[in-house]
Amino acid sequence: MHRETWIFGYGSLIWRPAFRFEEMAPGYITGWARRFWQGSTDHRGVPGAPGRVVTLIPEPGARCWGMAYRIAPADLDEVLRALDHREQGGYARHDVPLYLADGRAEGAAWTATVYLATPGNSDYLGEAPLAEIAAQVLASRGPSGSNVEYVLRLAEALEAMSADDEHVTELARLVRGRAQEQGTSARPDRPAERRGAHRPRPSEGSPGAELSVEDGGLSAAP
Ligand code: SIN
């Protein structure tokens, strides 16, 4: 039996993990599709004016690419505590079979913990036309920054791993186009996190990096 502990990120956890891990590896899970159907009132929106962030929807045959992180046993409790806090806006932990791009996790004998938000949670927004989702994204901002940043960072991160996701790509295209029409910036708020910033000990965040509420509540960004 495989006993390593992996966390699979498919949203902000791809581009801003902000927790200690021993290894990161691109991978995918099957039977789940990534959708901007979860409302965010604590990171990319506020109560009464939620932003839109991703969750996973069951879809037979679907493949969702993301980033898998191997966590040292000694760090596990602390990492899960921080992630439970960060993902408290409607997400719960689930175990899913994990496949790594390098083929190590063949045969679904490996599992990963994933945070997913199901329709039962009070922030769930559900399906909407992409044009409506884009308009909501452009209008939303929360304690972790703009909703636009969330969408564009995710699209860029997936593109960097050559992972196809039509829903995300199309939404990013709409958001960029609308922002251009409105003469507003569709640039993410801040520079991308350097990948080395969350390599194993002793570092916990890159020196001088702006940590947001999304970073597990380590310090709140304005
Ligand atoms: C994830 O990234 O895996 C969960 C959703 C999010 O925090 O954006």
UniProtKB/TrEMBL annotation:
Q: Name one GO molecular function term.
A: glutathione specific gamma-glutamylcyclotransferase activity
Kindly name one Pfam family recorded for this protein: ChaC
Instruction: Quote the InterPro entries the UniProt record gives.
Output: ChaC, GGCT-like, GGCT-like_sf
Q: Which keywords are on file for this protein?
A: Lyase
Q: Does the keyword Transmembrane apply?
A: no
User: Is Lyase one of the keywords?
Assistant: yes
Top EC class for this record: lyase
Per its record, how is this protein called by name?
glutathione-specific gamma-glutamylcyclotransferase
Query: Which organism's genome codes for this protein?
Result: Sorangium cellulosum (Polyangium cellulosum)
User: Taxonomically, what lineage is the organism?
Assistant: Bacteria, Pseudomonadati, Myxococcota, Polyangia, Polyangiales
